Amino acid sequence: MNKGLLELMDEGVAQLFIKETNQRKIIGTVGALQFEVIQYRLLHEYGASVDYEPMPLHKACWITCDDQQAFKDFLLRRSQDMAKDKHGNWVFLAQSSWALQMAQENHPKVKFFFTSELN
Questions:
Q1: CATH code at position 38
Q2: Is 0.85 topped by the overall pTM?
Q3: Quick check: is 54 in a domain?
Q4: What distance in Å separates the CA atoms of residue 71 and residue 85, rounded to the nearest whole number?
Q5: In this predicted model, what pLDDT tens digit does every residue of 100-118 receive, in sequence order?
Q6: CA proximity to 38, closest of 84, 46, 83, 22
Q7: Count of domains in the chain?
Q8: Cβ partners under 8 Å of residue 112, min gap 6
Q9: Would the CA dihedral through 52, 60, 41, 6 be positive or negative?
Q10: Are 74 and 101 found together in one domain?
Q11: Which structural domain, as residue segments, surrounds residue 34?
Q12: Do residues 5 and 42 lie in contact, with contact meaning Cβ atoms separated by under 8 Å?
């Protein structure tokens, strides 16, 4: 399954995020049909039967910060919303537009990117 997920993500089918708190894998897609395609391909190309459950996420935001203490504070306060992408970059998983707006307002030194332009 892991090999299949990594190869499918390399094809650009979706984005893979790994939650920092529990190492749970989260697949980010544009639409629900992509999950079915991933599930089908994992089964038929890699022999891996997987189930998925939808998560109520608004947006994934890649983040950086030049101020190490401000970044540390952000990671501590938002630990439940943090993941890393396949390259090890930090990603804030906003559950709503309001949560994203509050994170941006409460942490003005943190820069939010809406595409993975860090790589």
A1: 3.30.70
A2: no
A3: no
A4: 17
A5: 999 999 999 999 998 876 5
A6: 46
A7: 2
A8: 61, 62, 63, 92, 100, 103, 104
A9: negative
A10: yes
A11: 2-46
A12: yes
